[in-house]
Amino acid sequence: MSDIWLEAHADPVANLHTFPSCVTLSNVYGQTNHQCVVADNGDLAWPPKLKVYDGTSLSYDGSIVETPTAIVSFHVDTTEPRIPAIALAAGPYIYVYKNIRPYFKFTVPSLDVNQMEQDLWSQAKDDKIDVQMLHDMLESIKSDADAVPLTPLSTKFLQTPPHQRTHFVAVYRDNPLRRQTVITCLETLKKSHPEDDAISCLVIGTENKDLYILDPEAFTVLVKLPLPSAPVFLRSTGLYDVDYRILVACRNGNILVMKKGLNTPKFCITLNSHPVGIERIGKSIVVATMDKNLMCYSNKMKSLWTIPMVHNITCLACMDFKAKTFKGVLVGLESGEIRLYREKFLIDTLTLPEAPVIVQFGKYDREDSTLLIITKTGGLYIYILKRNVDLNQGLAVTTVGPSPKQFEKLNVPRKTKTFVEQTLREREHGVAMHRQFQHDLYKLRLTTARNFAEALQKKMMPVSSNNFAPLKLSANVQGLGPMFRLSIEVMNTSASNPIIGAYVVLVTNDSLYVLEKSYISLPLLVPSLTYTFNTMVRCTNEQGVTDSINVFVYVKGKCSPVLTAMIDMPASEAIIL
Questions:
Q1: Whole-prediction pTM value?
Q2: Among residues 262, 237, 260, which one has the least CA distance to residue 247?
């Protein structure tokens, strides 16, 4: 039982045997009510038929030449009254009906014939080769994996018994060689306007891994797109004259998105199992697979959610209830259940006495929201959606929805708040901050270069840069005051040349410090040896004023120092008399 559906009609012995793609709801007579058009596959007792159900009775029952594969309803012109046409795909042909009368027949373009096969039949026609040679050469072409497949005539010849091959060649050698593909799926694409009664193009998928878009007026091929595998389901959105997307489910388990202007798929995903059905719900793509899963993907083929089912999925359909802006999916299960989902939430469950194989939702008769079901044994069931039903109430009961806690303001710590504000500021003023950082970095490099150049010019480096006197100077002060010991270390950094005639001069403020030795003569400086010289310094100021002592290293014959050091003196302890 269900809380949202009312049973309107039940015919368990309708004896309908067809596929989900061979049923459509359309106003085929141009009247106020809509009909259900079914392309029946038939049985051993009767051929395939085209049936039209009007209300609860069968209003039309006509034979079809071949087994149908798909059927769609579309508009081919703008004449009044606006009566839609029915396109029926069977074999390599599309039979177009208008007002349930033959209107046009379209044949899928023929495929290329193997040139070697054509030459062999031409030679057999002129009696240049015998039947056995023709058979052997065709067998070699058939075994070649890279060659173009054989035509049905050659395939039938290879299957003929040896004693009948001569008669076969004599009868069929004058027939032209043709290689036709068959149509596997069918869909419509709005041409220039999105209205329901606007002109639509036909989208055809073939067994030869091709996708065709046909002009609705001249029935000529507008676009031909190659596919990596044979398509089994098609869903389209957009307008052909503006921009469109075609969703293609292939036999190898891949789902492709074909975009206008591109000959290759824009997105592609590989399913774990073969698809049972595919529907586009808004900006999402819902896929039912043979491994009992109902999955949803975004337009960029990112997986959103997956719902595992207990029983096998038999059919999938879209439920677009425009009166209440509701969009969901109807999932038919082998257990006889038909579940209605909105996104990943279960809204309602309808139980049937047997497994459904076809589910269609739309306008039927005078009702805008009708559910039409065909079961496994051929039964026909029709349900009507209750007028006062609240589909959002089922959603609220089934799911908890968003938590009220998410609308409450969080007690964010001050440090986190500062970090968030800083992040937002960096996002808004990132370019200006980067430019300011680069400006400060260049300024720092310039200041460093200037100071380095000034230190080189004033000989303020701890290591001499002169080649004639490569020296290294270091000094340190020991003591608490007022007496300090100043230790000076000098090292010759040359590799092999000693330095003669070097001396050290100490300069300071005489009102603050008294030097024991202000001039120190250096001995012969041997390379790589450190020489230490000490001198005493006495602080004469009682106020704790400090100053620095300048240390200059000279070499005889040079008027400028080769090294300069500035020693900052520490504060002296109080002078004890």
A1: 0.64
A2: 237
